[in-house]
């Protein structure tokens, strides 16, 4: 599983108990502190969104699903909860696999489960991430879009029920702008993803590790600046907190749109 960036790790520390959860129904523990996530596919092609819960939060009933163009699906989640969402692209069943029925595989965001459901596994970079903490520190929701694991398709987050909560998006076609050394190319010679410099080069200065493992030593690079220019509201590297983390009162609902 790719590491959850430091901003999410800080929020995960506030959760020591599991929350109950439900899908498109009534809160199973009788409470009312629930959030609805509505996933919408505005891409011209089918995608396979996936969910991953953070430490101390239960897996959601839907860990992976197919979403056709113009399709939508809603998941209801009881707070407190932390986790991430992303979409897998260019997916198919590899019938050459010895596994019964073949193995489900994706060019970007693949979680390695061999199935549409990810069942607690994270997505392989590159993948555009939506990260959320519900009912976190101070009774707030924390949310962001992260390109720390690279980019595979545009995403937006829209908070429902409050005009004061900021919408966040990474709407640029980063794949079309991606430097050749970061590009992930499909069998059809098209760019389907843009790797982070950490994934591409595995050097501490790009990964914020070793001597570069603190905010004072890990600074923006030419590559993180490329991502930041394309998507100013998104995390471009691990310590890009000041312009990339957003908060809202807990108990509101969210629309997650792919290809907004």
TrEMBL record:
Give the SUPFAM superfamilies listed for this entry.
Answer: Osmotin, thaumatin-like protein (SSF49870)
Q: Which cysteines are joined by disulfide bonds?
A: 43-259, 91-106, 111-118, 165-248, 170-231, 178-194, 198-207, 208-218
Asked whether the UniProt record includes Signal among its keywords, one would answer yes
Query: Which controlled-vocabulary keywords does the entry list?
Result: Disulfide bond, Signal
Say which domain of life the source belongs to. Eukaryota
Give the signal peptide range. Answer: 1-25
Q: Which SMART domains match?
A: THN
List, alphabetically, the InterPro entries matched.
Osmotin/thaumatin-like_sf, Thaumatin, Thaumatin_CS
Q: Which PANTHER family match?
A: OS03G0233200 PROTEIN
Q: What is this protein called?
A: Thaumatin-like protein
Lineage, broadest ranks: Eukaryota, Viridiplantae, Streptophyta, Embryophyta, Tracheophyta
């Amino acid at each position: 599983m790719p590491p959850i960036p430091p901003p999410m790790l800080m929020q995960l520390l506030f959760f020591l108990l599991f929350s109950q959860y439900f899908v498109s129904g009534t809160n199973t523990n009788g409470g009312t502190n629930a959030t609805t996530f509505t996933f919408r596919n505005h891409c011209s092609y089918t995608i396979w969104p996936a969910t991953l819960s953070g430490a101390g939060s239960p897996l959601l009933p839907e860990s992976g699903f197919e979403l056709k163009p113009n399709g939508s699906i809603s998941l209801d989640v009881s707070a407190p909860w932390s986790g991430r969402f992303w979409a897998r692209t260019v997916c198919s069943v590899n019938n050459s696999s010895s596994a019964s029925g073949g193995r489900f595989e994706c060019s970007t965001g693949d979680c390695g489960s061999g199935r549409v459901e990810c069942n607690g596994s994270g997505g392989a970079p590159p993948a555009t991430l939506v990260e959320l903490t519900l009912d976190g520190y101070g009774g707030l929701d924390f949310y962001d879009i992260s390109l720390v694991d690279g980019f595979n398709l545009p995403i937006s987050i829209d908070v429902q029920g409050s005009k004061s909560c900021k919408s966040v998006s990474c709407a640029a076609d980063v794949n079309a702008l991606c430097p050749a050394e970061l590009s992930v190319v499909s069998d059809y010679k098209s760019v389907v993803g843009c790797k982070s410099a950490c994934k591409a080069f595995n050097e501490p200065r790009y990964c914020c590790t070793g001597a570069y493992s603190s905010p004072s030593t890990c600074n923006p690079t030419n590559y993180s600046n490329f991502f930041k220019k394309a998507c100013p509201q998104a995390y471009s590297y691990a310590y890009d907190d000041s312009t990339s983390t957003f908060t809202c009162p807990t108990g509101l609902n969210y629309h997650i749109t792919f290809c907004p």
